[in-house]
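Q: My labmate handed me this sequence with no annotations at all. I'd like to see what the chain might look like in three dimensions before we decide whether it's worth expressing. Could you predict it?
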Amino acid sequence: MSVSAKYPVVDILGIPVSAIRMSDVLDIANEHIANREGLLIGVVNVAKIVNISKDASLRSSFTEAKIIIADGAPIVWLSRILRTTLPERITGIDLMYGLLKTANEKGYRVYFLGAKQNVLLKVIDVVSERYPRVIIAGYRDGYFSEHEEQSVAQDIRNSQSDIIFVGITSPKKEDFLRKWKDFVNVPVCHGVGGSFDVMAGVTKRAPKWMQNCGLEWFYRLIQEPRRMWKRYLVTNTVFIGLGISEIIRVTLNRLRGISNVETSCSVKADDE
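A: Here is what I predict for the chain of 272 residues:
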């Protein structure tokens, strides 16, 4: 049974987000590794949903993902308002830790791609210490040009990895995975964005209460105000507007459906 057949998807502003739990994703990853089948995992948050609407290349990357997980709490909240509830939020970084735990248990080979060299080396040290049974199949920083992509992809292919984590910013990581996922022949491909910086201690993750309240973006804004203020101001505002429009559209459709049912029942009663 395919992933899409076993786990339903929820339409969130045109994006088919998988109605799935963390434990399910880990089970699917294990199955794909055992069968050497490709599993591209898409991760969407508020910024990506906004950018997907205007970036054809980014949208194309997500159409090839077998699983798309909801990283942002507002996405889960919107699904509840629309009565198409996603079971839980799955952040990209939490999934990375979950996959590393599984890799440690099963002795999987893992490749790390992304971040600056000093940050990446710190990540390798942390993984070696916390997950000693993980086989580090290879690693490469994320600063390479387009003409170097093929050699990077070849190195990944040669590593015979089971999992690859791509710690590069969007949309570059999605473009790289879309372009090279078949060539590198790695069963599980997961783009983790800035998760390497968190693991290396370069940036701090928001406290749990802020994560639960959907305020991780605010915590990151406090840490990097000059770089992040415009991004969050624009994307959050646009997402709110898109969300309100979708709520109104769905509500009107439901009211029309109720009205049609009542009219049909009234006509049937008159005929009798």
